[in-house]
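Incident review: delayed structure delivery

Summary: a single-chain prediction request sat in the queue longer than the usual turnaround. Root cause was a stuck worker, restarted by the on-call engineer. No data loss occurred. The affected request and its eventual output are reproduced below so the record is complete for anyone auditing the incident later.

Affected input:
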Amino acid sequence: MEITEFVETLRLDGGLLADAADTAGADAPVPACPEWRMRDLVRHMGTVHRWAAGFVTEPREDRGPFPEAPELTDDELVPWLREGHHHLVVALHTAPADLRTWTFLPAPSPLAFWARRQAHETSVHRADAQQAAGVPLTPLPARFAADGVDELLAGFHATDRSRLRTDTPRTLRLRADDTPGADWTVHLTPDAPPRTVRHATPDAADAAPDSTVEAPAEELYLALWNRLPWDGLKVTGDPSLPALWRERGAI
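Output delivered after worker restart:
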């Protein structure tokens, strides 16, 4: 996907997140994050957007401290969220293509990293806000959702922070059945982070996996982020591997 596509998705979902927060009210519980109320979600996103924008507008080589949200009344929270979101969208839209700044996952460029990461961060939490508000989830483009699955598998779960381990080597295949090329085999072992192999075509896998999970890209994306139940996903083979993901796959 192009950087401009990520920024546009970020723009749209950030607005929808703020709208849902307005609808729900600051005290509404967030189903996917039981310890949070809506005010906590808004504080988190307002802070994350400002933190990310800082790496774009004031490039630096290290992570630095994560900022704290200011003390705001409930009535001030959503306008503050909208302000930070707008600043991030403008920062990404106007940033130079050769931006050099700190990142924490592989990407074609720092600008591509921040556009992609913030688009997915915002889309997942937009789903949280809409669930809290009791309104229908806004559909995501299949290609964007498939990209989010790829970021989760080949990005976050390729690091030592991943808790996905098995007693013996096992393989879990994940496939978005509405998106060409959205097909991955995750190799799980006792001692190392998962290794993900992308398949260009459905018959490209080397061997039959121990377990396979198939669904449309958006359902797979939200289920892997633990925002939707797995009931609607087609699971074949060993059911313990999808169960392992549900237990230990949170980021």
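Verification: The longest strand covers residues 170-176.
Action items: add queue-age alerting; document worker restart procedure.
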